[in-house]
Amino acid sequence: MVKSDMDKIKEALINNGKYWIAFVGDSLTSCEWIHPNWREIVEYVLKDKLCDEFPDYRTSSWGIRCFNFGFDGSTTQDILGKIDEIKAVKPDVVISLMGGNDPTLGISVEKSKENIENILKELEENKIEVFWATSLAEKRTERNDEYECYRKATMEIKTKENQKIFDMYSEYNKCDLDKFYTLITDEYKDRGFDTDPGHPNQLGNAYIAKIVLKEIWGIEFDPEKYIETTLKGEKYPKY
């Protein structure tokens, strides 16, 4: 299991002057059209939490750096092909959210599992911690059904001590998905949707951040309060 608790971040900042995070995955990770997205929220909360721990705010503000290795439309095969780029950054931890494109783009269940295992092996050899999350539950039932065997295969992967495979699909499915999939777009009209059924809005991203913050660092986060204070225009949203 990943041991990236807050003390470990503080230790890295003190000893190395840095704590770097690589966010790795597909469009659910890149989510570059949504602000705030879950990557941005995670970075904000970590810096905010650690700001009080150090006399000089620059220790956390400058020391925590986040890198977006989310590639829209990517499969696990694509990410494996990008592994050298990810390793070049030398992150302390990789946080991944992906997987839903594999069945759509012809990656078999067996190959998908093998790809993830090879990614984890490459990162383990470089002593990089990993939090690997399955894809999200979405509003398209057929896509959820198609992904189910991939989710199960991912959860069967054996991990090292500094790695964790997390069932984001099941955790996310406990939420009210109707509140998350509201992005207005014409992309899915031919499939009967007036809104995007597979990419969550700001609130949906805040709930992803809630899960990530809790599961990796034990940080409590209120997505509703965060989005509410963001929309009020507060410079420093509350959570």
What can you tell me about this protein's structure?
This protein has 239 residues and is of the alpha/beta class. The chain has a single domain (6-231), classed as SGNH hydrolase (Rossmann fold), CATH 3.40.50.1110. The protein has twelve helices and five strands. It has a five-stranded parallel β-sheet with strand order 2-1-3-4-5, sandwiched between helices. The mean pLDDT is 96.
Task: Briefly summarize what is shown.
By secondary structure, this protein is α/β, with parallel strands linked by helices.
List keywords for this structure.
48% helix; Rossmann fold; single chain; 239 residues; alpha/beta; five-stranded parallel sheet
**CATH fold-level name:** Rossmann fold
The helix count comes to 12
Q: What's the β-strand tally?
A: 5
Q: How are the strands ordered across the major sheet? A: 2-1-3-4-5
Whole-Å distance between the termini? 26 Å
**Helix and strand run:** HEHHHEHHEHHEHEHHH
Oligomer: single chain
Radius of gyration: 18 Å
Unreliable segments of 5+ consecutive residues = none
Q: In percent, how much strand structure appears in the residues?
A: 5-15%
The biggest beta sheet, please? Answer: 5 strands, parallel
Could you name the CATH homologous superfamily? SGNH hydrolase
Topology of helices and strands:
Layout: H1 6-16, E1 19-25, H2 27-30, H3 38-51, H4 58-63, E2 64-70, H5 76-81, H6 83-89, E3 93-97, H7 101-104, H8 109-125, E4 129-133, H9 141-155, E5 163-166, H10 168-172, H11 202-217, H12 223-231
Parallel strand pairs: 1-2, 1-3, 3-4, 4-5
Helix pairs in contact: 3-11, 8-9, 11-12
